[in-house]
Amino acid sequence: MISVEEARTAVLALAAPLAVQHVPLRHAAGRVLAQDVVATRTQPPFAASSMDGYALRRAEVEPDAMFKVIGESAAGHRFDGTVKAGQAVRIFTGAPLPEGADFIVIQEDVTRRGDLITLGHNIGDKDNIRPAGGDFSAGQTVTAPLLLRPADIALLAAMNIASVPVTRKPVVAILATGDELVQPGETPEPDQIVASNSFGLAAMLEGLGAETRLLPIARDTTASLKQAFALAKGADLIVTIGGASVGDHDLVAPVAAELGMEQSFYKVAMRPGKPLMAGRMGDMAMIGLPGNPVSAMVCGTVFVAPIVRKMLGLGIAEPEMHSAPLACDMPANGARAHYMRARLIDGKLHPDTRQDSSLLSVLATADALLIRPVDDPTRSAGEIGTYLLL
Ligand SMILES: Nc1nc2c(c(=O)[nH]1)N[C@H]1C(S)=C(S)[C@@H](COP(=O)(O)OP(=O)(O)OC[C@H]3O[C@@H](n4cnc5c(N)ncnc54)[C@H](O)[C@@H]3O)O[C@H]1N2
Ligand code: MOO
């Protein structure tokens, strides 16, 4: 058995970042920017008012000073003339600052009668002007790789980038296996249960930016598995679930081998997740997850999510480890790293008392995976534990 770290490295070696494609800005949210993008314009392109008021000359600002209003500058409609001594231009938020003016008095500080305004007594120093290029200038770069969030989309729009270079979405085929499984919504026979982790994994990977294909459930026969594998054709990654262990009906490894899988490893010193396998099948990377629902979801977090991120062009980051005091004493750990479902309460790690890898109700209420390293000795409450956030 190899270690979790060795397995993670081996999984990540199975795929490379995918090709670049251009998508309309409207479809770029949640995608990964694949190439640097350069602003084609300056924002704002002109000095602009940040308030509704009157544009005039700063040198003339004093209590009770009077000005003649000679025109108006509105957003989208500049005032074409020049503001001279004793003159002011009515101005609105976002409008270009007229020539000659270098100060905007907000309308609350002004009394207007006809074309004449009189300033109040507490004008202050703030000019209420947004300088040209105050936000960004033409030539400024948005640097790739970058997972595009709503604020990035707004920035790219302001930069007049209508088509965005992004990494192609990895296509992940998810193949649940087992005679006991039916799809949610179907009526199970007495010996059957409902497939769950395939749906959890699809949700996890789609959340990262992958496109998933949930294949029909394969039965525990060589023919059914082969048929299902054939449906994965064209995917970048196939993730199988179940049939990975040593039982008579665990056929994933032999069938995959028959179909040409070059195995990178089988079995990891990890709990849950021991019978994990990975390799390449032709153009696809292949990861075989254990069937137990929590094992599949934990391995999804620790191994599948990172390879999807790599395919998306987000690089290889070390898992983000956090630490917090343990809320209770813990017995020594054994020969497999234990990824324990835990809750963070008042800053302390509370591992659930029930750690069986079939318990989705425990996983669903956990917000952390407390990691007990191989052969970790007994620990006392208050000692620091390391965890992954879920
Ligand atoms: N003699 C041994 N038995 C087992 C070993 C071992 O080392 N020696 N390892 C155990 C460990 S650890 C795990 S993990 C499991 C993994 O087994 P498989 O990957 O072959 O998974 P299955 O047997 O197909 O299923 C296990 C369990 O999970 C349920 N399942 C499967 N797929 C789904 C799904 N898509 N949605 C919901 N539930 C699913 C299945 O019904 C079983 O209950 O092997 C141990 N045995
Ligand atoms: O390695 Mo298994 O995934 O503990 O239940």
What key attributes describe this structure?
6-stranded mixed beta sheet; 390 residues; binds ligand LQZAQKY5; Molybdopterin biosynthesis moeA protein, domain 3; alpha+beta; Molybdopterin biosynthesis moea protein, domain 2; 4 domains; binds molybdate ion; Molybdenum Cofactor Biosythetic Enzyme, Chain A; 7 helices; Molybdopterin molybdenumtransferase
Give a structural overview.
The chain has 390 residues and is an alpha+beta fold. It folds into 4 domains: 4-17 and 169-311, Molybdenum Cofactor Biosythetic Enzyme, Chain A, CATH 3.40.980; 20-43 and 135-167, Molybdopterin biosynthesis moea protein, domain 2 (Alpha-Beta Complex), CATH 3.90.105; 48-130, Molybdopterin biosynthesis moea protein, domain 3 (Molybdopterin biosynthesis moeA protein, domain 3), CATH 2.170.190.11; 321-389, Beta-clip (Beta Barrel). It has 7 helices and 28 strands. Strand 9 (110-113) and strand 10 (116-119) form a beta hairpin. The longest helix has 19 residues, at 293-311. The chain is elongated, with a radius of gyration of 31 Å. The two termini are 26 Å apart. The mean pLDDT is 97. The protein binds ligand LQZAQKY5 and molybdate ion (MOO). The site of ligand LQZAQKY5 has 26 residues, from helix 3 and helix 6. It is an enzyme of class 2 (transferase).
List the helices and strands and how they pair.
Blueprint: H1 4-12, E1 20-24, E2 32-33, E3 37-38, E4 48-49, E5 53-56, E6 66-73, E7 87-91, E8 103-106, E9 110-113, E10 116-119, E11 129-130, E12 141-142, E13 146-147, H2 150-158, E14 163-167, E15 171-176, E16 181-182, E17 193-194, H3 197-208, E18 211-214, H4 222-231, E19 237-241, H5 252-258, E20 262-266, E21 270-271, E22 277-281, E23 284-289, H6 293-311, E24 321-325, E25 337-345, E26 348-351, H7 360-365, E27 368-372, E28 384-389
Parallel strand pairs: 6-7, 15-18, 15-19, 16-17, 19-23, 21-25
Antiparallel strand pairs: 1-14, 2-13, 3-12, 4-11, 5-7, 5-8, 6-10, 9-10, 20-22, 22-23, 24-28, 25-26, 25-27, 27-28
Bound molecules: ligand LQZAQKY5 and molybdate ion (MOO).
Protein name: Molybdopterin molybdenumtransferase
Family: Belongs to the MoeA family.
EC number: 2.10.1.1
